[in-house]
Design goal:
2 helices, about 90 residues, Alpha-Beta Plaits, alpha+beta, about 30% helix
């Protein structure tokens, strides 16, 4: 089943994003075929304000674990992280 992982940056998101980007991208690449879509969310000025990942996971728990194991530190970086199922 497909799940959407949405995270919204806090005020210091850009600085944290810059220091963890390489490890974050490597983690996403490691998901292989399970990763369906990923990228930053941007505001009208093209500034990153969060991220979205679409992952094929066996359950919502598995999708949450994928998000929690991401090197991009969600607590302190993200004000909200959700993983609702995506219906095709």
């Amino acid at each position: 089943m497909l799940f959407v992982i949405l995270a919204t940056d806090k005020d210091n998101g850009s600085a944290i994003r810059a220091t963890t980007r390489a490890a974050h991208l490597s983690y996403l690449e490691g998901a292989g075929e399970r990763l369906k879509l990923a990228g930053p969310l941007r505001d009208d000025a093209d500034k990153p304000i969060g991220s979205m990942i679409v992952i094929d996971a066996a359950s919502q728990t598995a999708a949450r674990l994928f998000a929690e194991n991401d090197p991009m530190p969600r607590p302190g970086f993200s004000s909200r992280c959700r993983s609702p199922p995506l219906w095709r």
